[in-house]
Amino acid sequence: MAELVRDRGLVLHTQDHAETDRIVSLLTENHGQVEILAKGARRLEKTWGAALDLLNLAEVIYYRRRSGLHLLREASLLRRFSQLSQDLVRLEAGLTLARWARELVPKEAPDPRPFRLSLSFLFALDAGGPAEILLRAYQLRLLALLGYRPALNGCVACGKTEELVWSPDRGGLLCRSCGGEGEEVPARVWRTMDALLRLPLAALTRLRLPPEDLPHIDAMLSAFRAAQLAR
Questions:
Q1: Is the pLDDT reported for residue 45 higher than 50?
Q2: pLDDT tens digits, residue range 119-135?
Q3: 25: which strand partners?
Q4: Were 38 and a residue from 72, 149, 169, 177 both cysteine, which residue would form a disulfide, CB within 3.0 to 4.6 Å?
């Protein structure tokens, strides 16, 4: 018999199903990432359908099944991050946050930390925090939280802080003496990334990033994520 569960969750993704149904991916507080079938969610008379819009925080009551999709019984809106939709840069950051959480957080894993991390950064984005900084900080912290913390304060092999290159396969920064190859990472870039990973959330709002460093950081994060997930 299916268990009836009540939980809070962030809507990471929605997909239309059949004529009136919707499949909703939620990052929940107590059950990790779950997929729930919301029958009739696209009907106009379903008052809780809007609660399951992308990036909303909702309370859900659902029948938890041992296999396949869980079945929604009820949903209520707890928070809509309405300021995100007023700024395209901020909205894109929120959507990227949701995509990373959906792709990285394990399904059905009862760990509240990814939910709390994601929720805190959505609140910060909605409150007007610097989107470019908050997004990169979130990406680094989500990787670290899930066991993929990159080495960002020196060579992963010897600790040296000079002649460092980015080696995703080795876990982060690697000096040339330890086999590092390729373009050297400017010290200001890896020190900024280390600060993004370590600073309290409130302090991130005072941090400033040179615009020219953003593509470099994004490329490093993308390569590191791909290398870790390929293991």
A1: no
A2: 999 999 999 999 999 99
A3: 13, 35
A4: 72
Exposure string for 67-77, b = 16+ CB within 10 A, e = fewer = eebbebbebee
Helix (H, G, I), strand (E, B) or coil at 174: strand
8 Å CB contact between 110 and 79: no
* Three-class secondary structure of residue 196 per DSSP: helix
> Which residues are CB-contacts of 86 (< 8 A; sequence separation ≥ 6)?
none
Nearest-angstrom CA–CA distance, 26 and 56: 10
Encoding tokens for residue 127?
């409150």
CA distance 76 to 208: 38
Residue 94 neighbours by CB under 8 Å, 6+ apart: 55, 81, 84, 122, 125
Mean pLDDT value across the chain? 91
What the chain holds in terms of domains, given with CATH numbers, is: 3-79 (2.40.50.140), 130-229 (no CATH)
